[in-house]
Amino acid sequence: MVLYNSSEYDATMREKYLKSGMGKRYLKNRLKRSLSLTGFTIIELIIVIAIIAVLSGIVIANVIPYNSKGKDSAIKEQIGQIRIAGTDYFNTYGSYIGMCDSGTGCFNAKSNIINLGGYVLSPRIASDKYCYDFKLSDNATKWCVDSMGYNGSIDNCTLLNFSCN
To answer: What pTM was estimated for this model as a whole?
Structure first.
């Protein structure tokens, strides 16, 4: 029995195969396949980018209303602060006149409301009562606070009687 080195045998067989025509064709085809499978085509990349753009547009369109609701909630909280500041001012000075002058809690709350995108419409202040109405950041909803303790939504604010109701 003749023993031979298998690695030498494999190397010689590989050389014979590569020298033949079939070996060369095999290597060319394998090289072509490996080159064609190494990247994405431009069309594939454009499709992926388009899908990402559509999905991000959907997400942004669904997030924007929550941003507005958050601002409106913050404005309502600041309007409640005006009611509290008005009560404190009246308890200290015995009148509501001057309750929203510079440096007061009411003045600061009004500034915060404006910074959040709300609007002060038409405040009415007398010595024994007041009424403020506001538009929220959505420009449709009106909100009112008065000296009687009301702090809520209104349809038509009649400030002649210094009451939101």
So the answer is: 0.59
